[in-house]
Design goal:
The complex is a heterodimer of chains A (224) and B (295). Chain A has 224 residues and is an alpha/beta fold. Chain A has nine helices and five strands. Chain A has a five-stranded parallel β-sheet with strand order 2-1-3-4-5, sandwiched between helices. In chain A, β3, α7 and β4 form a beta-alpha-beta unit. Chain B has a single domain, classed as Alpha-Beta Barrel (TIM Barrel), CATH 3.20.20.330. In chain B, a hairpin with a 5-residue loop joins β6 and β7. Chain B is globular. The mean pLDDT of chain B is 95. Classes of the chains: A alpha/beta (224), B alpha/beta (295). The interface between A and B is medium-sized, with 30 and 29 residues.
Chain lengths: 224, 295
């Protein structure tokens, strides 16, 4: 197998959610090497980590994000792809840490104060990471000081706020105001089931993402 | 008491209740506060909600226990109060309903996903069993497993309720419309996909709740009816999608608009009609009036 074929195969594993050789899913790829094995082989073959990231992982997760936007796939397929992506990323971590591979930027994400829902927030975090960003996940019920602290540590980051409940849209509004009061230039993206573009504009967020892929599009446009 | 399914067999259309969560918020529930704890700390407020739906003409009311499973209560440090909170929820609604109307013990999703390895099927089952027993002990004659999106979680909850209580079991899932005009839950389950699995697990009544308004529920009812001519269908529709204006969230479908779709919904196959987020006693009153005119 040459390097182009290997990367193509790795990309397919991530797109289809084939984590490793032992993984039972998807049934059609049973017994075949998965993202884990193929990434190791790619590195052994001398393929550069940045090529693995760009040509296999990011390419695959972009397809996954698009299919999810079009509702051609649903949450379980997206999660399993993210799991395969993570299996591959594990091998790339040393190169991120050494600085050999640079990511596109940093993305801080959290579910706003008073809201304990994490499914949507996690999906966005996975797809953004799969798009080549470093994700700093602050968890759920994140009060403004925690966002401010994370911004102080990563002043170049873009920040994503999630809310599922109509009641916590109010705390999203407060968080946007409080962050912008202290850091007027920080870019804030908002999203979540009850959140709309109109709401995003009303509260002064910089962007509204109706699904994970649109968050990626906004983020990538900021560093293009 | 005659079961809901028996009443439907005689050709009756029944009316369920409206929103609880958005109603509690109006009564002062704060973001980050545990709604179910109100059963112990503000039982009179909870009773008011239950009573207002009975007064509006509902044949059945739910309980304030949507997030009453161990999975949700432990986020508030209340895992040791599962039994107490759920039993109180059912007692409050039973007090409002009296002996002749149905009390539907509400069981919502766990927030944990099987596919992520967050939880096992057995853990789902045990948690839903614990909640179901407490609701039945408090006086619920029916359990409504609602807002489900994952078929395995729904199946675990229905089985746990069926095998550990004598209650009648309802299960509703939440569907969104795709760009192609089809309906799927966020986990990829279509209305027709749920039917046999959920009936096999032990549900007496199935249906849909929440979502983006009454209109979509017509297509969803048709989809369920197309694969099963007999199973009673319950619909709890939102009063449209939430809209945020001037610091407040509004649901824009009026009682008149919702009531005007009742006949279509019944023709599509629905047997029990009520509301979800944003619906008020006035919505239920007008739906009940419409149902009365039809019979």
């Amino acid at each position: 197998m040459d390097s182009a074929e290997l990367l193509k195969k790795l990309s397919e594993c991530v797109e289809m959610g084939k984590v490793n050789k032992d993984a039972p899913f998807p049934p059609a790829m049973k017994g075949m090497d998965g993202a884990d094995e193929l990434t190791r082989q790619a590195l052994e073959m001398g393929i550069k980590p940045i090529e693995i990231l760009n040509d296999a992982l990011i390419a695959a997760m972009e397809k996954v994000g698009e299919k999810f936007s079009q509702k051609k796939i649903f949450v379980p397929q997206m999660l399993i792809s993210a799991k395969a992506m993570n299996a591959s990323m594990e091998h790339l971590k040393p190169f991120f840490q050494s600085g050999e591979v640079k990511r596109k930027g940093k993305f801080i994400i959290g579910t706003v104060a008073g809201d304990l829902h994490d499914i949507g927030k996690n999906l966005v975090a996975m797809i953004v990471e799969g798009a080549g960003w470093e994700v700093i996940d602050l968890g759920v019920d994140v009060k403004t000081p925690k966002f401010l602290q994370a911004i102080a540590e990563h002043p170049e980051a873009i920040v994503g706020l999630s809310a599922l409940l109509t009641t916590t849209m109010q705390s999203m509004k407060n968080t946007v105001n409080e962050i912008h009061a202290q850091y007027p230039n920080i870019k804030l993206i908002v999203g979540g089931a009850p959140v709309t573009d109109a709401f995003s504009k009303e509260i002064g967020a910089n962007a509204y993402a109706h699904d994970p892929q649109s968050a990626v599009s906004y983020l990538n446009a900021q560093v293009a | 008491m005659e079961t809901i399914a028996d009443k439907i067999k005689t050709g009756k259309i029944l009316v369920s209740d409206g929103a609880w969560g958005t109603f509690l918020q109006q009564k002062g529930l704060q973001p980050g506060e545990c709604p179910e704890l109100w059963n112990l700390e503000h039982p009179n407020e909870v009773f008011d909600i239950a009573k207002s739906y009975i007064d509006a003409g509902a044949d059945m009311i739910e309980t304030n226990s949507f997030g009453g499973s161990r999975f949700k209560l432990e986020l508030y440090g209340l895992a040791d109060k599962v039994y107490e909170i759920n039993k109180a929820a059912a007692q409050i609604s039973r007090k409002a309903a009296g002996p002749n109307k149905h009390v539907l013990g509400s069981i919502g999703p766990s927030g944990k996903m099987l596919v992520m390895g967050d939880v096992t099927y057995d853990e789902y089952y045990e948690a839903f069993k614990e909640q179901a027993i407490a609701l039945a002990d408090g006086g619920a004659d029916t359990l409504v497993i609602e807002t489900m999106t994952d078929i395995d979680e729904a199946r675990a909850a229905v089985s746990a309720a069926r095998e550990n209580t004598n209650c009648e079991i309802i299960c509703t899932m939440t569907f969104d419309k795709t760009p192609d005009g089809d309906f799927y839950t966020m986990m990829g389950i279509a209305p027709a996909d749920m039917v046999q699995t959920i009936i096999d697990a032990g549900a007496n009544i199935i249906g849909a709740n929440c979502g983006n308004g009454m209109e979509n529920m017509i297509a969803i009812s048709e989809a369920i009816r197309s694969v099963n001519a007999e199973i009673p269908i319950l619909i709890h529709a939102n009063a449209g999608a939430p809209v945020y204006e001037n610091g407040e969230t509004h649901f824009l479908e009026t009682p008149e608009q919702m009531a005007s779709l009742v006949e279509k919904l019944v023709s599509a196959g629905a047997n029990i009609i009520g509301g979800c987020c944003g619906t008020t006693p006035e919505h239920i009153r007008q739906i009940a009036q419409k149902v009365k005119q039809m019979q």
